[in-house]
C-alpha cells in the first residue's frame, strides 16, 4: 500500500469539500481497502464518510428509499424490503459473507469493482486498470467472464448482485457533487466497456451516491433472485436472474427480468419480459420466453456454457414463482 493523506467527514458538505483530484471515499471499505493493499488503485487522498448521515429506509406512495450508507445486512432484514421486494433481500443475502454484509454499504456495493483476476493482478495487462495495456482475459482464463456487452478491450463481468435486482425494479440513484444534486436511473449509470473500460459509470469526480429510490411496484412481492455459482458461500455469480411477475387469473400481466454474471453491466432483458406478457404462468411459457435471452452473446474459449445457463436460470426463477 502506498502513502496517502486521510480526512474524516461528518456531513455530505464536508465530504465534498475534502474531495480532490485522485481522492477516494471510504465507507465500509470492503472493496477499497483490498484494492489499495493490492496496489490496483492508489488514491492520493482518502475521505472517511462513515459518520456522514446517509442512512434510513423509508417507504411511501412513491416507493422505497434507502440511504447510501445503510449496511447490506440491515437492508436485507428490514420489513420494508424483505416483504414488498423479496428479490432485493435475496440478492443481498446471497452476496459476499455475513461479516462483509455487516460492514459493506449499499452505495459501496453498487460501486464495487470487477472480480476479474487480471484486473486485481498489477503484473498482468488490463485495460480497466491500465488503459491501453490490453485485456488478458480475452485469450486467458475466462470461464467466469461476460458474454453480453463485451468489447475487444474488456470482457469483465459486473460483480454486484444488488444492482441486478435494482435494475429489474427500475431504481434510481440520488447523487450529489460540487454541481449540486441529481437523479439518474441505475440502468443509465453503468457504462459498457467499449474502448474505455476504465470509465465504468457516470459518477463525476468527487460526486457521492447519497441514496437509492425504488419505484412503488405492489406486485414485486412476487419476485425472486436466483444465483448460480461454483460454491454456495462467498462466491460471485456465474449467472443470476432477478425476476418479478404480475399474475392475474393464471396469466402474466407484466414481468421484470434482469441478469447478472453474464454481462459487463447488470443486464435487463426487455425481450424476455415482453415474451412473458399475456401468457399463461406455466413451464412451456417460460421456456419459449427465454429463447432469445442471450441474443448478441460473444463467446470466449471457456465460457460458451453461459447462454444456456442464462436461459435455465431465468426458467428456474420463474418456476419458483409459479410454485
Automatic annotation (TrEMBL):
Pfam families: CO_deh_flav_C, FAD_binding_5. The keyword Oxidoreductase applies. Transmembrane segments: none annotated. Residues 1-219 form the FAD-binding PCMH-type domain. It comes from Nonomuraea longispora. Keywords: Oxidoreductase. GO terms for molecular function: FAD binding; oxidoreductase activity. PANTHER family: OXIDOREDUCTASE, XANTHINE DEHYDROGENASE SUBUNIT C-RELATED. This is Xanthine dehydrogenase family protein subunit M.
Amino acid at each position: 500500500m502506498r502513502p496517502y493523506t486521510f480526512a474524516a467527514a461528518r456531513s455530505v458538505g464536508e465530504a465534498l469539500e475534502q474531495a480532490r483530484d485522485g481522492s477516494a471515499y471510504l465507507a465500509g471499505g470492503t472493496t477499497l481497502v483490498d484494492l489499495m493493499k493490492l496496489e490496483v488503485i492508489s488514491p492520493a487522498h482518502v475521505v472517511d464518510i462513515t459518520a456522514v448521515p446517509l442512512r434510513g429506509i423509508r417507504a411511501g406512495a412513491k416507493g422505497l428509499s434507502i440511504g447510501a450508507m445503510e449496511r447490506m445486512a440491515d437492508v436485507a432484514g428490514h420489513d420494508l424490503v424483505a416483504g414488498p421486494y423479496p428479490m432485493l433481500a435475496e440478492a443481498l443475502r446471497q452476496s459476499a459473507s455475513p461479516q462483509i454484509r455487516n460492514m459493506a454499504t449499499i452505495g459501496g456495493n453498487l460501486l464495487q469493482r470487477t472480480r476479474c483476476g487480471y484486473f486485481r493482478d498489477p503484473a498482468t495487462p488490463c485495460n480497466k486498470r491500465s488503459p491501453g495495456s490490453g485485456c488478458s482475459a480475452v485469450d486467458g482464463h475466462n470461464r467466469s467472464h461476460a458474454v453480453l456487452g463485451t468489447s475487444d478491450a474488456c470482457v469483465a463481468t459486473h460483480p454486484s448482485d444488488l444492482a441486478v435486482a435494482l435494475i429489474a425494479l427500475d431504481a434510481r440513484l440520488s447523487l450529489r457533487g460540487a454541481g449540486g444534486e441529481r437523479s439518474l436511473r441505475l440502468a443509465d449509470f453503468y457504462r459498457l466497456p467499449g474502448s474505455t473500460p476504465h470509465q465504468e459509470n457516470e459518477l463525476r469526480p468527487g460526486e457521492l451516491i447519497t441514496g437509492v429510490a425504488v419505484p412503488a411496484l405492489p406486485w414485486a412481492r412476487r419476485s425472486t433472485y436466483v444465483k448460480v455459482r461454483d460454491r454456495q458461500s462467498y462466491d460471485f455469480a456465474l449467472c443470476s436472474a432477478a425476476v418479478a411477475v404480475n399474475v392475474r387469473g393464471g396469466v402474466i400481466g407484466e414481468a421484470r427480468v434482469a441478469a447478472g454474471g453474464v454481462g459487463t453491466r447488470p443486464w435487463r432483458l426487455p425481450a424476455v419480459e415482453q415474451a412473458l406478457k399475456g401468457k399463461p404462468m406455466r413451464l412451456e411459457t417460460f421456456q419459449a420466453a427465454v429463447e432469445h435471452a442471450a441474443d448478441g452473446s460473444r463467446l470466449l474459449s471457456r465460457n460458451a456454457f453461459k447462454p444456456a445457463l442464462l436461459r435455465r436460470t431465468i426458467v428456474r426463477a420463474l418456476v419458483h414463482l409459479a410454485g
